[in-house]
Amino acid sequence: MLDRNFKLGMDYALELDSKDSLKKFRSRFYMLENKIYMDGNSLGLCSKDALDSLQNMINQWKNYAIGIWNVEDSRYYHYSNVLAELLAPLINATPEEICVTGTTTSTIHQAVSTLYKPTDKKYKILVDDLNFPTDRYAVDSVVRLKGLDIEDTIKVVKSPDGKLIDEDAIIESMTDDVALVLLPAVLYRSSQLLNMKKITHAAHKKGIIIGWDLCHSIGSVPHDFKEIQPDFAVWCNYKYLSGGPGATAGVYLNKKYFGVVPGLAGWFGNKDETQFLLRHTFEPELNATSLQTGTPNLLSMAPLEGALKIYNEAGLDNLREKSLHITAYLMYLIDERLVKYGYSYDNPTDDDIRGGHVSLVHDEAYRISFALKAKNIVPDYREPNVIRLAPIALYNTYEEVYKLVDALEEIVADKYYEEFSKERLLVY
After folding, report:
1. In a structure prediction context, what are the per-residue pLDDT tens digits for the chain, which is 428 residues long?
2. Which of 109, 136, 237, 409 is the most exposed place for a label (fewest CB within 10 A)?
């Protein structure tokens, strides 16, 4: 356990950096010149390893054209399997239960439409009111396609404070008419980490299928799916895992569903043995790759291979230890230096229920986020008043955290934020 008897002062931050066992990995990433990047929870930085694996893929295309599918014993034809081997340790699942395919939202559509089998008495889908909107859009869409009424079918558990999910309220809402539950492992706004084992086991006792959105946890928080045994999970690979903008997403399908016909069947989910016989009868592959639809997006998958090699080399437990430590350090500095300027944070302080980012709160958070960018610090703003700050274990330093707090103090003390408009932009 890293020492948490934190101290003020830049010298102490530099001392922490000198003792950081992960500091060697920073040189493997392309750091933004003269900027402090605190937005790795939205889009991870490009690594040299990711660039190498992408360049290798381009070279295979350049040198072999259509022959790329047969290179290295059909490695790229089964590229999802290659990436699944690298992803499996992050959630402690078997590679056969993992598929890299589509976008995050399309994999939610795929997983829900595959496993959601409503009956007259068991048909409701249980969700929370704080999850990222795309999850709700997807389940609403599936409900409409089933010809059901959204107001009647979607059961929303309200947060008691608009910041955190009440786990007991979720479990209490698992009534006999609930067929499926979809929840975030880590809340995107407040960084709350849910007790996935407790909630999953409660769902299964009621005969309810449960799936998890890992977008804000995978690569930051270790998951043990052999113990938790969820029915499915989905995630993006471009946040903590640094797979690149719009990187192909991941999906986990518990092995008990192998052979189930997917809700969105496509030819790449068909068994290898009969795929090129081009029959009009779909035969699902007997693993998670049955969830594939069209031809894999190799160029959007390739950077992930290089990035995952870094994560596995560093070790997820080591990454989690530093992540918890450096975010605790940031919260300490907020408490000691920034509270008097109107700052606070919404995220839990307990390690067991906190993800990988700090949710900094201020009434002027929107304009402060632009002031930070003007000072060459890249944060992430979320409505209505949250600046998400994610010091990433692989490449951010304690010195950068200290400089971040210096800037946050100056921005409010000098009222620098008043130089920026309150008008919302399209992307912020």
Report:
1. 789 999 999 999 999 999 999 999 999 999 999 999 999 999 999 999 999 999 999 999 999 999 999 999 999 999 999 999 999 999 999 999 999 999 999 999 999 999 999 999 999 999 999 999 999 999 999 999 999 999 999 999 999 999 999 999 999 999 999 999 999 999 999 999 999 999 999 999 999 999 999 999 999 999 999 999 999 999 999 999 999 999 999 999 999 999 999 999 999 999 999 988 889 999 999 999 999 999 999 999 999 999 999 999 999 999 999 999 999 999 999 999 999 999 999 999 999 999 999 999 999 999 999 999 999 999 999 999 999 999 999 999 999 999 999 999 999 999 999 999 988 876 66
2. 409
Q: What is the pTM of this model?
A: 0.96
Amino acid letter for position 413 = A
36 three-state secondary structure:
strand
Long-range pairs of 197-201 with CB within 8 A, sequence gap ≥ 24: 197/224, 197/227, 197/228, 198/167, 198/171, 199/167, 199/170, 199/171, 200/228, 200/229, 200/230
Query: Residue 103: which residues within 8 A CB-CB, separation 6 or more?
Result: 236, 246, 248, 249
Contacts of 127 (CB under 8 A, 6+ apart): 135, 136, 139, 154, 155, 156, 157, 181, 182, 183
Sign of CA dihedral 325, 4, 360, 13: negative
Measuring CA to CA, which residue among 388, 384, 327, 333 is closest to residue 353? 327
* Phi/psi of residue 336, nearest 5 degrees: -80, -30
Q: Which residues contact 301 (CB under 8 A, 6 or more apart)?
A: 79, 80, 83, 100, 243, 247, 248
8 A C-beta contact, residue 100 and residue 268: no
